UniProtKB/TrEMBL annotation:
GO terms for molecular function: inorganic diphosphate phosphatase activity; metal ion binding. Its EC number is 3.6.1.1. Keywords: Hydrolase, Manganese, Metal-binding. Residues 177-303 form the DHHA2 domain. Its cofactor is Mn(2+). InterPro entries: DDH_dom (IPR001667), DHH_sf (IPR038763), DHHA2 (IPR004097), DHHA2_dom_sf (IPR038222). It catalyses: diphosphate + H2O = 2 phosphate + H(+). This is inorganic diphosphatase. GO terms for cellular component: cytoplasm.
Length: 304
C-alpha cells in the first residue's frame, strides 16, 4: 500500500506518512510512504534534523491500495483516488466526502494532530518507535498544535509529545518548536504564490469551492512589505481556480490571533461566520489559530 497525506502537504501529512508506513511494515503489511507535493520549509527542516529523505513524490494512484493520512476530503486527495482502493484513513479533522467500495480501517480522533493518533496505533500494536521517527512525530504534533497554544490541542497531544521527546532524546521540545516556527516565519524573498500555497486547502462548502491558506509566524510584521502582494495573489488564485472564495490566514502565534485576507464573491460571509466586519478585504480574528476548528466550521455554517 501507499501511505499518503493531502495535496500541498504539511508536516503532519509528511511525517505521518513516514511514521505510519514504518508501523505497517513492522506488523507485516507492506507499505511505502508517498507525498502529493513539495515539502514546506518547516517540513524540510524537520526531516533534515532527524535524517530523513522526502517520501516518494507520487501523483497517480489508480489501481493502488492507499492509506490516507491527515484528511478525508476528495478535494485534498489524489486526483484519481476514485480509481484506487482506500484501505484506511487516519485523521483528526471533520469527516469529509471520501467514500469506499470496500471495508477499511479508520482511526479518526478529535485531537490536535494525526501523529498523535499514529502514536496511539504504535501503542495498540505494541511496536517500538525508532528514535528518528519519534522525533518527526513529535515535531508534527508541535507544529499542528502551535506548541500547545491551539484550541485543538488535547491532553493526548501533550502526553504524546512528552513520550516522543523522551524516545527521541530531545530535552527542550518547546525550544525546538520555536526553531520550527522561526523557519516558518522566514518569508521575505519568497514569491507570493509560493507563500499562499504553502499551507493551502480547498473545501467544498455547500457546492462552492473555497480555498483557505494559512501562514503561521511569530510576528505579523514579517508581512508588512509583502501583504499587498499576498492580497493581489489570492484574487488571481480565486479567478484561476473558479473558486467562490479564497481566504489567507496570517496567524501570529505569539499574539494568538489571525488576520484574514479575503477574496470572495460574498464578503458578508465573514461577518456571518465570525461576527466581524471586513475593512478593505481584511479582518482580525482574535484568538483564532486553528483552521479546522475555528475557521472552517463557522464558514461552512455561513454557506449553509
Amino acid at each position: 500500500m501507499y501511505v499518503v497525506g493531502h495535496k500541498i502537504p504539511d508536516s503532519d501529512s509528511i511525517c505521518g506518512a513516514i511514521a505510519l508506513a514504518y508501523l505497517k511494515n513492522q506488523i507485516g503489511e507492506a507499505a511505502t510512504a508517498a507525498r502529493l507535493g513539495e515539502l514546506s520549509p518547516e517540513t524540510a527542516f524537520i526531516l533534515d534534523k532527524f535524517g530523513f529523505e522526502a517520501p516518494e513524490l507520487k501523483l497517480s494512484y489508480a489501481g493502488e491500495n492507499v492509506y490516507i493520512v491527515d484528511h478525508s476530503e476528495v478535494t485534498q486527495a489524489p486526483d484519481d483516488i476514485a480509481q484506487a482502493t482506500i484501505v484506511g484513513i487516519v485523521d483528526h479533522h471533520k469527516l469529509g466526502d471520501l467514500t469506499t467500495s470496500t471495508p477499511l480501517e479508520c482511526w479518526i480522533r478529535p485531537v490536535g494532530c494525526s501523529n498523535t493518533i499514529i502514536k496511539m496505533m504504535y501503542d495498540f500494536y505494541n511496536v517500538e518507535i525508532p528514535k528518528n521517527i519519534a522525533g518527526i512525530m513529535m515535531c508534527a504534533i508541535l507544529s499542528d498544535t502551535v506548541i500547545f497554544k491551539s484550541p485543538t490541542c488535547t491532553t493526548a497531544d501533550i502526553k504524546c509529545v512528552e513520550a516522543l521527546a523522551e524516545i527521541a532524546g530531545i530535552e527542550d521540545f518547546k525550544a525546538l518548536g520555536m526553531e520550527m516556527f522561526k523557519v516558518k516565519s522566514a518569508v521575505l524573498g519568497t514569491p507570493a504564490r509560493d507563500l499562499v500555497m504553502r499551507d493551502f486547502k480547498d473545501f467544498n462548502m455547500n457546492g462552492n469551492l473555497v480555498g483557505i491558506g494559512q501562514l503561521e509566524v511569530i510576528d505579523l510584521s514579517v508581512f508588512d512589505e509583502i501583504r499587498a502582494d499576498l492580497e493581489a495573489d489570492i484574487v488571481k488564485l480565486k479567478a484561476e481556480g473558479n473558486r467562490h472564495s479564497v481566504f489567507l490566514l496570517l496567524t501570529d502565534i505569539m499574539k494568538e490571533g489571525s488576520q484574514i485576507l479575503i477574496a470572495s464573491d460574498d464578503e458578508s460571509l465573514i461577518e456571518r461566520a465570525y461576527g466581524v466586519t471586513p475593512v478593505e478585504g481584511k479582518a482580525w480574528l482574535d484568538g483564532v489559530l486553528s483552521r479546522k476548528k475555528q475557521v472552517v466550521p463557522p464558514l461552512q455554517d455561513a454557506f449553509a
